[in-house]
Amino acid sequence: MRNPLKFAAAGAPTLVALAAVTVFVFFLFPLLALLPALLFAPALWFYRDPDRTPMGDADAWVSPADGHVVEIIETFDDFVGRSVRIGIFMNGFDVHVNRFPRDGVVQDIMYVAGKKWFAFAPKASEENERMYVRILTPEGRTTLVQIAGIMARRIVCYAKKGDALARGERYGMIKFGSKVDVYLPAGISPAVRVGDRVRAGESVIGVKTVK
């Protein structure tokens, strides 16, 4: 889980290109090199990827994304069945690296083309461009959905079918404002409320239901 570079691998091409252009232009037109240099700083900020340590007990579910909880609803998922969906909206200033909420093995990955509504809107979960990652955890099945927002230009998913990832481990990112949904299986209760601020791979969002 440690990342000595502190920025997402998906951002490497952009960061390298901006750095190369800055150096090249500097040798030809020093003053003009300020433009790509000014673009490099916000790009480095956007692609930052700090290390995170999961909070709570070993079986607590942690947030798959940085941002604010925008919905918690009882619903039905084709893979999970009856579940509670927690939606987390990431704005342009949040860390956009996504992480596994619980130890699990990837069962299936499915990409769905779609619209680019504002990601915090409820209909975004069904109508926007999105990537489904279906996982088998110790508590049962769960589905993670990376949802592109109005400014998002690319969904990145590193995980592959059959991969076993640990709680808090990185599995992808969405470039620019977006949303991630997580479907909690039966037996896991939400530990957050709408409006709460959460951090990927760190903040507890679900715990085992006490009977």
- Structural class, from helix and strand content? alpha+beta
Mean pLDDT: 85
Number of domains: 2
Name the poorly predicted regions: none
Strand order in the sheet with the most strands: 9-5-6-7-11-3-2-13
Strand tally is: 14
The CATH architecture of the largest domain can be named as Distorted Sandwich
SSE ordering? HHEEEEEHEEEEEEEEE
Beta percentage is: 35-45%
CATH fold-level label of the largest domain: Glucose Permease (Domain IIA)
Ends: how far apart? 34 Å
Q: Provide the CATH top-level class of the largest domain.
A: Mainly Beta
Shape: elongated
> With helices defined by DSSP (H or I, 4 residues minimum), what is the helix count?
3
Largest pleated sheet: 8 strands, antiparallel
- What is Rg? 18 Å
Helical fraction: 10-25%
Description:
The protein is α+β, with helices and mostly antiparallel strands. The chain folds into two domains: 9-46, no CATH class; 61-208, Glucose Permease (Domain IIA) (Distorted Sandwich). Helix content is 16%, strand content 38%. It is built from three helices and 14 strands. The chain has helices at residues 12-28, 34-46, 124-127, and strands at 61-62, 67-77, 81-90, 97-99, 104-112, 130-137, 140-148, 154-157, 164-165, 170-175, 178-184, 188-190, 197-198, 204-208. The strands form three sheets. An eight-stranded antiparallel sheet has the order 9-5-6-7-11-3-2-13. Strands 1-14-12 form a three-stranded antiparallel sheet, with no helix packed on it. Strands 4-10-8 form a three-stranded antiparallel sheet, with no helix packed on it. Helix 1 packs antiparallel against helix 2. The model has no long low-confidence stretch (mean pLDDT 85).
